[in-house]
Specification:
heterodimer; A: 295 residues; mainly alpha; 11 helices; 2 strands; B: 367 residues; alpha/beta; Rossmann fold; 2 domains; six-stranded parallel sheet; six-stranded mixed sheet; 17% strand
Chain lengths: 295, 367
C-alpha cells in the first residue's frame, strides 16, 4: 500500500467535493435548498477549459469558471426568489439543463463530441510546500497539489469561523432556523441567502476548474460524474458541522483511493472493490443518529 | 383575456412539442457529407453499373439504397466517423443512394421502420444500443437487410450481426508492451469488468506472457467510461508502483491515462485502443489496438451491393477478415522501438492469422 499516493489521491478526489460541500453548507444553514452543485461544477469545468484555451492562461480559466458559476447562481436566485419557483424542482431542472448545455456548447464552440483534449489547454501549476512535504508519510499532503486543493481544506476552517463565530454567521443560521423570527429582528433574509448562494457559486466554480484544468487538462462530457451529489450527501450526513463535512468528504476520498490500491494488489475481486465508496456512504447512513434524535 | 393567455401559451407549447416529435426520418440531420456522397453516387452510377461483374440472381434490383443509423453523432473522430468512412467508400463504389440518421433514444424503432418503408435496402445500424430495435423491426420487413455494427444478433435471416475479436489486436499489444517494458511490469486500465472488455484484457495478458514469461501484468477496472479523473488516478497508481506501460481500454476514462503518462514523463508508455492514438502523446504511445469498423461496414455494404449478403448470423471480424488490421505501431515516429520488437509482433500476427496462435478471450479469473 503506497501511503503517500493514497493520501495525495484522497486529497485530489476530496478537494472538488469539499468545495461544493462547504458551499452547500452555507446555503443549507441559510435555509436554501441548493442542489445545483453538480451543474455549477460542470459549468465551471467547461468554462475553465474554454477560457484557458482561448486566453492561454489558467488564471483566465479559473476566473471564467467562477463567473459562469456566479451567473448560474444568479439565474437560480432570480427563478426561485423573484419568480417564486420551488428550489428543489428548479434545482433538478438546472442540473439537466447544464448537462445538455455543456454538450451543446462543446459541439458549437469546439466542434468536438465526447471530449476536448488539446496540448494548448493550460493546467493550473502544482505547488509543493518546501519543508512540510519532506515529513515522512504525511508529507505527501503538501506535495504537488494545486492551490485550489489547499484552498478547499482552508475553506472548511473559514466556513467554521464565519458561520459559527461571526454576526454574519448568526444571520445565516437564523435565516435557516427560523426565518420569521429573523425577519422580525430585522435581518434581511433575502440578502443573506443571496450572499450564501454567491459563496457557494464561487466555491463550485473553483471546484469545476480544479477538475478540468487542475488535475487534468481537458473537458469531457459529464466529467463531474456525480461529485456534486456526493457533496450533497456529505452535507446531509454532517449535521451542519464543518468538521463533519471535512471528515465525511475525506472518508469518501480515501474510499476511492484505497479502492485503486486494493485493485492493484489483486486480492479482492474488482466488483467488490468498486463498491467500497458506496459502502462508505452506507456506513454513514448507519452511523447517523435516527432523525428524531437530531436537532 | 387574462385567463385565455395561459391557455393560448400552453397550446402553442404543446403544438411545438408535437412538431418536434413527428416522423423523425425526414427531419433529422442530413449532414453535408451525406449530400456530397449522394452527389458522388449519382455521378458514379454510370461508371459503376457495369462494375459488379457477376450476374447474380440474388443481386438487388434497381437502385441500391443504404441508410446509416447511429446513436452517436458523426464528428467523434473515432468509431462513428470510422464506420461512416467505410459506408461512404462502398456507397461510392456501388453507386448507392444514402441517408444518414443520428437517432435519439426512443426513436430507434420508428426510424428503422421509416427507413425500411422508404425502400432502403440495407440499414447499417451502429452500436449495441440499436440491437433491440433491430430485433423488433427486422422480422417485420423481411426484404430489407440489416447490419448491426458491434451488435451480436443471430437467427434473424435478414440481419447480420458483428462482433469484434479484440483479443487478437490486444495480443499484439501485449507482445509490444512486454518487450518495450524496462521494469518487467505492465498494466491496463479497463472500463468495465464485463465479457467484452475482458477480451481486451485476456488477449493483452496472453500476448505479454508469450513474449516474456516473467512479465507481471496488472489489470485495473475503472467501473466507468466517463471519468477521466478516475482513469488518471488508476494510471498514476500503476506508474507509481513501477508499471511502465499501461494499456487503456476505457474510452473517456482512458483519456486520463494519457494525462498521467504525460505528467510522469518519458519512459512511461501508453497503448491506445480502437484507433491510432499515438498523436495524442507523441513519443509515449508504443502502439494502438485497432478495430477497423470501416472495414466491417464496407464488407457488409459490399455484400449488399453484390447480392451476397447472408444474414442470420454474427460475423466475428477476426484479423483474417480485415486484412490483418488489429494493431498499429506508433505513427508519429517519435518512439524508439527496441530491436526485435516489431519483428516479434509481425511474427505473432502471422501466427494469429494462420490459426497457429489463438489468443485467450477469457481471463484466468473468469474461467
Amino acid at each position: 500500500m503506497n501511503v503517500s499516493l493514497l493520501i495525495s489521491a484522497a486529497m485530489r478526489y476530496s478537494a472538488p467535493v469539499l468545495l461544493a460541500a462547504v458551499g452547500a453548507l452555507f446555503c443549507d444553514c441559510a435555509g436554501v435548498t441548493f442542489i445545483i452543485l453538480e451543474a455549477q461544477m460542470l459549468l465551471g469545468c467547461f468554462f475553465a477549459v474554454i477560457a484557458g484555451y482561448y486566453f492561454q492562461s489558467w488564471a483566465a480559466g479559473v476566473l471564467c469558471a467562477i463567473l459562469a458559476s456566479i451567473l448560474l447562481g444568479w439565474f437560480f436566485i432570480w427563478i426561485t426568489m423573484k419568480m417564486k419557483a420551488i428550489e428543489l424542482v428548479v434545482g433538478f431542472a438546472i442540473n439537466f439543463l447544464i448537462d445538455g448545455l455543456t454538450i451543446y456548447l462543446l459541439r458549437m464552440v469546439f466542434h468536438q463530441t465526447g471530449s476536448f483534449v488539446s496540448p494548448e489547454i493550460p493546467a493550473i501549476p502544482k505547488i509543493t510546500v518546501p519543508v512540510l512535504s519532506h515529513i515522512p508519510l504525511i508529507g505527501s499532503i503538501f506535495y504537488q497539489q494545486t492551490w485550489i486543493v489547499y484552498a478547499a481544506f482552508l475553506s472548511v476552517l473559514v466556513a467554521a469561523i464565519l458561520i459559527y463565530h461571526t454576526p454574519f454567521g448568526l444571520h445565516i443560521l437564523s435565516s435557516g432556523a427560523n426565518p420569521e423570527a429573523a425577519k422580525a429582528v430585522g435581518i434581511d433574509i433575502g440578502k443573506t441567502r443571496i450572499k450564501c448562494i454567491m459563496i457557494a457559486s464561487v466555491l463550485c466554480g473553483l471546484a469545476g476548474s480544479q477538475l478540468s484544468i487542475g488535475f487534468l487538462s481537458m473537458f469531457s462530457e459529464g466529467m463531474t460524474v456525480g461529485k456534486g451529489f456526493i457533496a450533497l450527501g456529505a452535507l446531509m450526513f454532517s449535521n451542519r458541522k464543518p468538521t463533519l463535512v471535512l471528515f465525511i468528504t475525506l472518508l469518501f476520498g480515501f474510499a476511492e483511493a484505497i479502492g485503486n490500491q486494493v485493485q492493484l494488489s489483486g486480492t479482492i475481486a474488482s466488483e467488490l472493490v468498486l463498491m467500497i465508496p458506496y459502502l462508505a456512504v452506507l456506513a454513514c447512513v448507519f452511523a447517523r443518529k435516527p432523525v428524531a434524535e437530531q436537532i | 383575456m387574462k385567463r385565455a393567455l395561459p391557455m393560448i401559451l400552453a397550446t402553442m407549447m404543446a403544438a411545438a412539442l408535437c412538431a418536434g416529435c413527428g416522423n423523425s426520418s425526414q427531419g433529422t440531420t442530413q449532414t453535408q457529407a451525406t449530400a456530397a456522397a449522394a452527389e458522388n453516387a449519382a455521378e458514379k452510377t454510370d461508371n459503376t453499373e457495369s462494375a459488379p461483374a457477376e450476374a447474380d440472381a440474388a443481386k438487388p434490383e434497381g437502385n441500391l439504397k443504404a441508410a446509416f443509423i447511429t446513436p452517436q453523432a458523426l464528428g467523434d473522430g473515432s468509431v462513428t466517423d470510422l464506420s461512416y468512412s467505410g459506408f461512404t467508400k462502398a456507397a461510392e463504389e456501388y453507386g448507392m443512394e444514402t441517408q444518414v440518421v443520428e437517432v435519439q433514444v426512443g426513436e430507434y424503432e420508428e426510424t428503422l421502420r421509416s427507413m425500411a418503408q422508404e425502400g432502403y435496402g440495407l440499414l447499417v445500424c451502429l452500436q449495441p444500443e440499436l440491437v433491440d430495435a433491430v430485433c423488433t423491426v427486422a422480422p417485420e420487413y423481411p426484404d430489407t437487410l440489416f447490419f448491426s455494427m458491434n451488435g451480436e444478433i443471430n437467427d434473424i435471416p435478414n440481419v447480420l450481426g458483428s462482433a469484434n475479436k479484440e483479443q487478437e489486436g490486444s495480443y499484439l499489444a501485449g507482445v509490444t508492451a512486454a518487450l518495450m517494458s524496462e521494469t518487467g511490469k505492465i498494466g491496463a486500465v479497463i472500463g468495465q469488468d464485463m465479457a467484452q472488455n475482458n477480451r481486451y484484457a485476456a488477449g493483452y495478458e496472453d500476448g505479454a506472457k508469450a513474449a516474456r514469461p516473467d512479465i507481471e501484468v496488472s489489470i485495473l477496472y475503472a467501473g466507468t467510461f466517463e471519468d477521466p479523473a478516475k482513469g488518471k488516478e488508476l494510471a498514476l497508481t500503476l506508474y507509481n508502483s513501477g508499471y511502465d506501460v499501461v494499456y487503456q481500454v476505457a474510452a473517456k476514462t482512458g483519456l486520463g491515462v494519457f494525462e498521467a503518462a504525460k505528467e510522469q514523463g518519458e519512459g512511461h508508455y501508453v497503448v491506445g485502443c480502437d484507433v491510432d492514438q499515438s498523436p495524442l502523446l507523441p513519443g509515449q504511445v508504443v502502439g494502438s489496438q485497432i478495430t477497423p469498423y470501416d472495414t466491417w461496414v464496407y464488407a457488409a455494404m459490399k455484400d449488399y451491393g453484390e447480392g451476397t449478403f447472408t444474414g442470420g448470423r454474427t460475423e466475428a471480424f477476426s484479423m483474417n477478415r480485415t486484412d490483418g488490421a488489429g494493431f498499429d505501431f506508433d505513427s508519429t515516429g517519435k518512439v524508439n522501438y527496441k530491436d526485435g520488437v516489431k519483428e516479434a509482433v509481425e511474427d505473432s500476427k502471422k501466427k494469429i492469422m494462420s490459426g497457429e496462435i489463438v489468443p485467450e478471450s477469457v481471463r484466468e479469473k473468469d474461467k
